[in-house]
Amino acid sequence: MKYGRFDDNAREYVIEDPRTPHPWINYLGNEEFFGLVSNTAGGYCFYKDAKFRRLTRYRYNNVPMDVGGRYYYIKDGETVWNPGWKPSQTELDHYECRHGLSYSRFIGEKDGVKSELTCFVPLGVNAEVHKLSIENNSDIKKSLQLFSFAEWCLWNAQTDMENFQRNLSIGEVEVDGSVLYHKTEYKERRNHYAFYSVNAPISGFDTDREAFIGMYNGFENPQAVMEGASRNSVAHGWSPVASHYLDVELEPGETRELVFVLGYVENAEDAKWESKGVINKAGAKRIIRKFETVEKVDAALADLADYWDRLLATYQVNSGDEKTDRMVNIWNPYQCMVTFNMSRSASFFESGIGRGMGFRDSNQDLIGFVHQVPERAKQRILDIAATQFEDGSAYHQYQPLTKRGNADIGANFNDDPLWLILSVSAYIKETGDGSILDETVPYDNDDSKATDLFEHLTRSFNFTVNHLGPHGLPLIGRADWNDCLNLNCFSKDPNESFQTTENQTDGSAESLMIAGEFVLYGREYIRLCTLRDIDTAAAQQHVDAMVESVKVHGWDGDWFLRAYDYYGRKVGSEENEEGKIFIESQGFCTMAGIGREEGLCEKALDSVAERLLCEHGIVLNNPAFTEYVLEYGEISTYPAGYKENGGIFCHNNPWIMIGETKIGRGDRAYDYWKRIAPAHREEISELHRMEPYVYSQMIAGKDAFRPGEAKNSWLTGTAAWNWVAISQYILGIHPDYDGLRIDPCIPKDWKEYTVTRRFRGAEYRITVKNPNGVSKGVFMLLVDGDLTKGNIVPVLGEHGVHEVEVILGEKTNG
Ligand code: BGC
Asked: Is the distance from the beta carbon of residue 484 to the nearest atom of ligand 1 less than 6 Å?
């Protein structure tokens, strides 16, 4: 069952039934100011950091779900309704929510009145702009009353939810004409305020929540709205809000257009005040002026559309399959940009107070957006690297506002350092800009401790070399990529977190996943060494030794082991009762091609197909754990089939897809991709439940109570890795140091497809033909009509447009 449809021309998902199985959301903002918006206009906004600079409140885990947002109430006689259906939930004659690229539009119609609300964050502006049009399509004159509504968060989203002995007394506002200001804590240590404006005279306002809503009413029926008159309340403490009241008189056929701006302003310390106790409003006025007319708003919307045109033009496929095209051309790159902006911090699941930018997560996210915003990717790399320690290990996360690392969600994840090699090499392959390696970057944000970035990578590499266990395999530390495989934790206290509690330090638990990661990114590191004429012999020896250790101690007969536990016992082996096989080591060891010549990769991937694959994707481990295993930690706490215990953790499915492409099995790779690609799951939306346009972190696996049900959409490394799997390994257009490597691995029955790829300033129009019905192998490569040896399209300088023709075939063009 579907709840809407894709409109590919408009690059929108159109939700036609507001009762989606879950709030289906969108993200506004691309730079420093962000908003999250649901299909009923719920959500919140913040400046830079969802924890420290939250502008509006949101009620997580509420009943009903999705409470709090930018609400516009239209009162037409006795009927009160909202363009986005909620919160009043008055049945609309027509409802539509169009989630587009960085904007959302709500179209509601009731009793001959049509409203259209468009919400977006203009480029270069720290504000949400809401364009609201109200049209009288009836044949009688309408006297409507319009109320806006937003509830201020007292900046720090965490204390806002906790510290009520303080919070109830500190709220402060100012009202100036049609602009409502929020200035809590401004007179002391804050130099920022928020405002909510409308470009028309108002008939009234409210800034005190109880005055507007009433003590015993709710967002669905605020007393002021129900009575058709605001109270002109000025909040002193309690919960400050902002609500405008406007009378809207419409003759038949008449339309009124209004612009609301919900923004954020910082003032310099010596320019905070206009007069004693009165904030300096110049910054707000500047923003308001920018959007004082609908024409100016429309121009900003057009700029936003151009921005996305430019970003998406980097890679456009015409595969012949519309679902594949819409994922690759629109939604997957869009989601990658959102993960760039948010990491794992702010969604309708992640409250934005627990997690900042992740060292592991953000490095991986980067491979999904580096082709779109290389300059910003570079800055991100430098920010991440600055949170590394001198021994190569790293803070697991850092706060976006301060860019300082913290250990709030644990430390000593031994996979962390190696991801930096992945992101840096991806950046150089995309841009050709090796000079990033010369950038001076501090350790632990301490400028007195700084080296060039290349030295950071060396320390990342050496961190693994210096932390090997008894089998010559990498020690796992607190955990590797799988946060929940806590082999040194031994937690018996339900009040402690598996990620932050003290670990045993005398154990020798080792990870086969990090082993594969080390081989894969160790080779990348060696390649970077050669770019700098650095002798690679020692590094090569370490990588070779790791390959040997994996073959000797990491192979279980039909698949790669997952780990050795604290006691040196096998994890992920036929010997085990539960958790006999895990996905991560199959993914990383096959991506690294360990034992390919001996057939290990093929065997491991066949075992994945046999034991881990199900209708909805590839589960993480099998059999799932049914009991708590003290020496494995959190993984065994989840019910079977969910999350890291036998769930389809979509992040790691692409590792298997890529592994399959490395041994040429394109039918399998594409089949695996389709199983989890949201557009391919749209028809089962009632089961899948999450948005059909973006990936979710997890889909319940075959051992779950309800296999196929997804959870935790949007902020997941799934976006970046699926992007890489489909665009680089399946469709096979792969940025590399010397040019674009063309190495498709597709279903045998695909005949032809085209990709337009912008790369290092030029445009490559690539046509891949498959007359021989193969999956892999470039038989002939023509670049601008010239036969070219190998499968690399060389860098042909900036600005040109180049035709590339690729003929696949078994005999390759070596
Ligand atoms: C975390 C990742 C982790 C994954 C698997 C996600 O929630 O953000 O860092 O790799 O879970 O445990």
From this structure: yes
